[in-house]
Amino acid sequence: MKEISRYLFVAKLICKERVVGLDDSERDQLDTWRGESDKRERIFSSLQNINVDELENRYEGIDVDRKWNNFKDLQSRKKRRVRMSVSVAASVCLLITGALWLWIKPSEDERVVLAEQGKQNNVSLVLANGETVDISNPQKGKVKLDQGAKLYEGKRLEYTRADSLRERELEYNELIVPKGTFYHLVLSDGTKVWLNADSRIKYPVSFGKGKREVSLHGEGFFEVSKDTARPFIVSTDRMDVKVLGTTFDINTYEDEGMSYVVLVEGLVEVFAGKGESRIITPGDIAKVNMHDVRAGIQVSKCDVEHYTAWKEGNFSFRNASLTEILKRVSRYYDVTIIREQMFEEEYYTGDLSRDVSLESLLSVIESSTSVSFKVERKIVYVQKKRD
């Protein structure tokens, strides 16, 4: 099931379309959601013919008040361009929000997959010529790499070849790190990158005389080698980060609903949306909403160590939802998480070493929540504790 935040955002778009209409950007987002499956198109079509009298009887058992309050919180951040009766607008949106929830919510007994085991088990390097090399176990045999690249025990790949200062076509490699592991990469300019589980990075084997640019999916911690003549740029689906020499963490996991950059040292300029940019200083976090491209870059102070704990081999949770925690567990231990029954979302705060076994970690979480876990091979089942 999609995240509740995505559901509320789509409900907001459908409501606004019925009440005041959408701008071009909002129309594109709604059309994208509709086009993701035939089921969603059918749901959208059904909502266009919504009947107040027929729908009232279907709301029994649904916490509509809570959902409507959530919806109003989102709407309060937007300025309405058209004045109208609040009661009429609220009635229309309440019905659409509740109806959409009826269609997409799971039943009480339905099993829901919160996170799935990865399809790939080994760390892979895709060379510029298209060849894919398994670099998980270099000790088992000779691995063919680019000139100047070296593999070390302990999950590290290092490029020692000097950068070219001549204009030439760059050759790109892509490092793919699956769930259940992490990796250390040293680029040809000396920049160090730590990649978290379920991440990948595309980079030049040797940088040229212009800007140094890489693309990232997942999460990476960067220590950028300073070079005032060649800015370093990390490109992601939702934002770009530009630096000269600095240390920062960048997270782009799609299932978290938010991309962010946390700055440890130096200065960083973050670009997102249509030309928007913000400069952040150490201790800042810059967030970009994955589902609302108009939300802009949100900057605030944060606990840096909380966001970078994974690099030191730790889990750090601060009022984290159980759903969020289980997604991290799935990435690190490479397991599938299945929720067996509906339960109210719970929140947990704590710091744990990632060296502990899966069973030990789940036992700690279980002791502080109202759910229990059952592990069978690579599947974790989540259910309510029995009284």
Could you give a short description of this structure?
The protein has 387 residues and is α+β, with helices and mostly antiparallel strands. It has 9 helices and 24 strands.
Please explain how this structure is put together.
The longest helix is centred in the first third of the chain and has 19 residues, at 86-104. The chain has helices spanning 4-19, 24-35, 38-48, 52-56, 64-75, 86-104, 304-308, 322-333, 358-367; strands at 112-115, 124-126, 132-134, 149-152, 156-159, 172-177, 183-186, 192-195, 199-204, 212-217, 219-223, 232-235, 239-243, 247-251, 258-265, 268-272, 276-280, 284-289, 297-301, 314-321, 336-339, 347-353, 371-376, 379-384. Mean pLDDT is 79; it is low at 52-62 and 77-88. Helix 1 (4-19) packs across helix 5, helix 1 (4-19) packs across helix 6 and helix 5 (64-75) crosses helix 6 (86-104). 26% of the residues lie in helices and 32% in strands. It folds into 3 domains: 4-104, no CATH class; 124-308, Sandwich (Jelly Rolls); 313-384, Phage tail protein beta-alpha-beta fold (3-Layer(bab) Sandwich), CATH 3.55.50. The protein is an alpha+beta fold and 387 residues long. Strand 16 and strand 17 (276-280) form a beta hairpin. The strands form 4 sheets. It has a 9-stranded mixed β-sheet, with no helix packed on it. The chain has a 9-stranded mixed β-sheet with strand order 4-5-7-8-11-14-15-18-19. The protein has a 4-stranded mixed β-sheet with strand order 1-21-24-23. The relative contact order is 0.09.
